[in-house]
Amino acid sequence: MASHRRPKQSSHAYATALTATAAAAVALSTQPALADPLPDPNRKGVQAQIDRLYEEATQATEKYNGAKEKAGQLEKQVKSLQSTAARKQSGLNDLRNRLGSIAAAQYRSGGLDPSVQLLLSSDPNGFLEKAAALDRLSTQQLSKLQRYETQQREVQQQRQQAAGKLKDLESTRKELGDKKKEIQGKLAQAQKLLNGLTAKERAEIAENEQRANRSSERAVLGNEASASQRAAAAFSAAKTRVGLPYVWGASGPSSFDCSGLTSWAFQQAGVSIPRTSQAQAGIGTRINALSALKPGDLIIMRTDLSHVGFYAGNGQILHSPKPGAQVRYESIAQSGMPFMWGVRI
């Protein structure tokens, strides 16, 4: 019977083959791998870094919103003060002309009254201190002089207040510019991190975000009654915005940041509330327990009070959460933001 055993190699041949195999193994170990590389452990933290940058951007956005609201208020105050000063100056000019007529008449009748000379001098503010001179004036003339002095002080005060408000406005506008740069910088860093991922990883992140957005279609909100008619109206308005994009600094009607959504919704209900989440946290009635919330109540999130949304019932929040997201329903427990308290308007 024929044998199928392999012929026995000589010791020399075996040694030669072993050496060749080892050399080949060493050579292969120095070559780049042709198979898919193992996942980079550093990439596991990229999503966390992006989320952190988005959170910092939204926090800066609320500060930007506050500065923008303050700038708007200061602009109105400056305009009002300047308008008032101009109106008072016009009245002051008219009164001065009438006092000039009195002076002219006194001059024609035999000389200019010393008190009128004092009034028309470069320092009329001190004329009341010269009370001895006032006994030469008629009651009507004295009344005009006192009115002139009062109006002159008011004009000066209005101008000083306007100058102070203008200085505050300039500082606030600088703050606006700084916050805008900070927000844009955070978003640019987040985009750079995204760009450093593989196409597959970016697609996975986008799909996760879309999945969260689509979850609004399946949100189970329950049948809890709203706390008030106005809260119900505001909540109903917010529900019509589901699916619209988050845009920092936006307050509707086609894009929103977090406090932009809540302030816009209450505006539709005929209620004016502050623009920022921090300011909204201090209005209405505070509700400390999640279990006591009703749909339409505001929910204040994060320890710095930098996020706000509507309680939607059944442990859900309706909000505009972050860059890249849409207005949506989300579980409060899974939002990643600590609940601070509720606000009932």
Q: Can you offer a commentary on this structure?
A:
There is one protein chain. The chain has helices spanning 11-29, 46-108, 114-119, 139-195, 199-214, 229-239, 258-268, 277-280; strands at residues 285-287, 298-301, 307-313, 316-319, 328-331, 339-344. It is built from eight helices and six strands. By secondary structure, it is of the alpha+beta class. The N and C termini lie far apart (101 Å).
Helices and strands, with pairings:
Elements: H1 11-29, H2 46-108, H3 114-119, H4 139-195, H5 199-214, H6 229-239, H7 258-268, H8 277-280, E1 285-287, E2 298-301, E3 307-313, E4 316-319, E5 328-331, E6 339-344
Uncertain spans: 1-39, 130-135
| Total beta strand runs | 6
Please count the helical segments: 8
Helix-residue proportion: 40-55%
Secondary-structure class = alpha+beta
* Average pLDDT rating: 79
Strand order of the largest sheet: 1-6-2-3-4-5
Order of helices and strands: HHHHHHHHEEEEEE
Largest sheet: 6 strands, antiparallel
How far is the first residue's CA from the last residue's CA?
Answer: 101 Å
Strand content: 5-15%
Record keyword descriptors for this entry:
345 residues, 8 helices, 6 strands
Give a concise summary.
The protein has 345 residues and is α+β, with helices and mostly antiparallel strands.
